[in-house]
Amino acid sequence: MSGPFRTTARVRTAIAACTTAGLACAGLVALPASAAATTLTAQYRTSASGATADQAEPWLEITNRGTSSVPLSEVTLRYYFKADSPTTAYRFACSWAVKGCANITGTFGNLANPTATADRYLEIGFTSGAGSLAAGQNTGDMQLRFYRADWQRLTQSDDYSFNGSRTSYADWDKVTVQRGGSVVWGTAPAGNDPTDPPTDPPTDPPTDPNAPALFDDFTYTSSSDPALQNHGWTVKSGQGGPGVPGATWSPQDVTFVAGTGSNKVMNLRLTTDGTAAGTKESEIQTTARKFRNGTYAARVRFNDTPTGGPDGDHVVQTFFAFTPLNAPMDPNYSEQDFEYLPNGGWGEPSNIMYTTSWETYNPDPWNAVNTHSESRQSYEGWHDLQITIDNSAITYYIDGQVFGSHGEPYLPETSQWIDFNHWLIDLTGQTGSTPRSYNQQVDYVYFVKDQVLTPAQVAAKVAAYRTAGTAFTDTVPGS
After folding, report:
1. Total domains, the chain
2. What's the rounded Cα separation, in Å, for the pair 101 and 92?
3. Handedness of CA 16, 19, 21, 27 (dihedral sign)
4. At the N or C end, where does the chain have fewer CB atoms within 10 A?
5. Residue 321 C-alpha from the chain's centroid
6. pLDDT digits over 291-301, tens only?
7. For residue 24, what is the domain's CATH number?
8. Are 262 and 180 in the same domain?
9. Which of 171-185, 194-208, 241-255 has the lowest mean pLDDT?
10. Same domain, residue pair 277 and 412
């Protein structure tokens, strides 16, 4: 093995055992001070113990048995497995984690030297939002899973890192822990030190070039452009929720303005003077309700500050898909939201991004059945937003990184609309009477039916449409 410090698996196991027992371990091996201070170990269990399963469920923890705190953004783990075939693609999901699924990433790679029990790995990483792991502490549960992209059962009995008898957490050296590119725990399959680059990049799942798809580059003249309606869009008008009772949905505030180069972008404007009567919001949604499983994507520009006037209003800037609530606690209701609150709201004091998956709700008295991921930071500027939905998970991405993943019971039961809106939660964020306005912009929207695409594949599809001069296409059949 290469790198500044290595021990054998036997020594690592002995160190872990004596440390756990509270014994002095210095006699086992003389560790460099830096290694001794950052001893990270991996614990593993599984909740899917069969030789085959709908999905593999490697639940993991990391324990810091050293003497100093470790930023988790510097740490990765690898779980090694044998693919069911050379062309089989896999999907990662996080069901629940003490550190928050939004702070955990999962990517797949190919081993440089395949063995009888491993030719792929799942690499788990952490965003800065996961924070640091103090000495003597562990991450707590990371309830992780992965599954075949074609939703067929997978075989895991021949996987290097799998152990069906591990139904409670214990040290497991067939999962490796890396910090700063160096292995600090575990043993990889022979000839596959994680510091060695793989021979191939991670394999993207195959896509169907003929899959039904919607793409719109928003090259319209105004909200009254006949092409907008002909292309299946409805611009909201009048009054009604969500938001401040008495506010007005204004079609005139859905405009199409110059973007980069010759490209146009859609602008959703919100204006208010601090009163309901003086508040105008904007919304556009697909006329047809025909979107369910597949990949949803849009490039959206969020704004933290108004174009003029005082700041502080509790505005909501969105991209989402949903079905109607036909009755309280309607079991066929569903919704998957990106909701950015640049000035907070709903009890939050400042900017926060929510991705929320809904099963149903009762409006009065309020009772919500949903789950969400969140990040308390500014998202001002352009961002690539993506939602993938299949029969087992809803996964949210921001700028190519997994933001959150939600499973049952939140998967949609019926077809949905696609929607963008820009609205005001209440009148308490900024109480002044000076008029102000906020903008949310949308570069494009894309949907492909029954295909779970990677962010890179979405970017390639959008680039291909633009290279071909295709400003609009919709081959998605009506439901």
Report:
1. 2
2. 11
3. positive
4. C
5. 15
6. 999 999 999 99
7. 2.60.40.710
8. no
9. 194-208
10. yes
